[in-house]
Fold this sequence. Notes:
Elements: E1 3-7, H1 13-24, E2 27-30, H2 31-40, H3 44-54, H4 61-74, E3 82-85, H5 91-103, E4 110-115, H6 118-132, H7 139-153, H8 155-162, E5 166-170, H9 175-187
Adenosine monophosphate is lined by residues 9, 31-32, 35, 52-53, 56-59, 64, 86-87, 89, 93, 136, 145.
Amino acid sequence: MNLVIFGAPGSGKGTQSDKLIEKYGLHHISTGEVLRDHIARKTPIGQIAKTYISQGQLIPDSLMIRILEEIIDNEPKAKDGVILDGFPRTIPQAEALKRFFEKRGQEVHHVIGLEVPEDELIERMILRGKQTGRADDNLETIKNRLQVYHDSTRPLRDYYIKEGKYRPINGTGSIDDIFKEVAKAIDGEA
Ligand code: AMP
């Protein structure tokens, strides 16, 4: 089973992914974490990613798609199923993912859409910035990230609704209550 965990920045994708790993034993790929790791290791990809991330902009599709495909192809555990967290973020990324899986006889089974009002997203990211020191969790970058989400990423909601894969989840409330809804969406239709 391959899952996409989808939502605005601050919607709880990482938190719910941790619970999905525990329950379903899938291999987790967070493109944001992968890029932050490249930045920490000062790799050539990290040098490129740093500029985009610090401005709240998306890494260009061609580079991001290449990074993601290499990770899946080089990780044996990914063959049994993945949780994609932070990918796809654009329609071209979703189309590339579809072709990539089709070539391997696979598909995205469910897109778990965590839906959270914008004022709560901002509050959560400000808090996370204070707690973790994450560089892009400052008000100016947060605003850019939300704008980019609305312009480039949110259209994927309709894309996956049309594909019959979108499972909307109310992403407010306790982590455990949200996860119950996530698990119900997966198990009810698996
Ligand atoms: P995240 O940890 O998912 O919030 O991602 C942090 C940042 O990494 C984003 O604001 C983007 O700059 C970059 N990023 C992560 N995933 C992608 C992606 N699929 N496409 C383009 N940029 C991405």
